[in-house]
Structures are given as C-alpha cells and as structure tokens.
Amino acid sequence: EASKAYAGAMVKPAPSFLAHARAAEADDPATARAHWQGAPGAATPTPLYGGAAATSPASTRVDVPLSGTLQTALAKACADTATRVFSPQLTEVALLLTAFAAFVHRVTGDERVSIGAPAHNRLTAQARETVGLFVETFPLDIDVAPDDTFISLFAKVKTAMAGYLRHARPGAGS
C-alpha cells in the first residue's frame, strides 16, 4: 500500500474512528457491560504483599528467565490434551496464569486473585483497519482455595479466561 501511495496511486482511506465507535455502540454491549460490572476484580484490586500499590506512571520490567527444564515442562504441558484451551498460545497463557495465581495466593493469602488482562478490541475487519487505541483492561478473577491442586486451579483459570474472551468488548469496561 505504501509503495502505491509513493507511486501516486490512490490508497483507500482508513476507516474513521467515529464510524467504528458508532458501530460498537450499536452492537449493544449491555450483556458484556453487565458481566464486567458484576466482576469483583473491577472494584477491589488485590494488594501485593499486603500493602497498597504505589500510584505512579512509572513501571519496571522484570524478566523472569525460565530454565531449559521449565521450558521443556511448559511445552509438554501445552501439548497435553488435559490442559488444552483454545490454542497453544492460550494454553501457555493459562498455565502461566495458573502458576502466577498460585504464587500470589501463597504470598498474600488472598483467596481471590484479580489479574488485569488487556483486550485489543479489534473484532471486525473495519476495526482492524481503523487508526486509534482500542485496548481496554478487564479483570480475570480467580478464586483460589487452600486445597486447590494445580489442575483444579487451572480449571478455574480456564473458566475465567472463557468469560474474558466472551465478554471483552469495546466499551464494556466503561
């Protein structure tokens, strides 16, 4: 497309954001909005290590390298039909979220862990071509019981992810 534009050929204009917003509004997100308004994580953030989070626009990236042994175990778990989600990538995310929820539960003692998950909100061909920021963050609420096994906690994560995938719609978080 860019080479055509430089050569003087007409390139179709990008869809307008206003048209996208009107289409999204017409899609009646009432069901999705009701789902997120009822989500406990939307109202109550989980404090990490028992203290309130610092309010700052700054953040620090923390890389956690996985050893070859852990990478092999993760790949094996992703290939196992007992832990299959919708795709290999979502399976890997679900397994890592399960480990993270178990870790947060052990460190904080909280029985509900809420993890903010971004949604790209480009659900239609027109939205994918529209210029603008569509990302919204929705809570993945996971109830962790002291007697949960990794597999039972993984089932809860899969359920939370299914609700997220079903209800993460433009405007539903507002």
Q: How is this structure best described in words?
A:
By secondary structure, the chain is mainly alpha-helical. It has seven helices and two strands. A two-stranded antiparallel ribbon has the order 1-2. The model has no long low-confidence stretch (mean pLDDT 77).
* Main β sheet profile: 2 strands, antiparallel
Q: Using DSSP, what is the number of strands?
A: 2
Q: Report the principal-axis shape.
A: globular
Structural class of the helices, strands and pairings?
Answer: mainly alpha
Gyration radius, in Å: 20 Å
Q: Percent helix among the residues? A: 40-55%
H/E order of the elements? HHHHHEHEH
Instruction: Report, as a whole number of angstroms, the end-to-end distance.
Output: 35 Å
Instruction: Pick out the low-confidence regions.
Output: none
Order of strands in the sheet with the most strands? 1-2
By DSSP (H or I, 4+ residues per run), the number of helices equals 7
* Average pLDDT taken over every residue: 77
Strand content: 5-15%
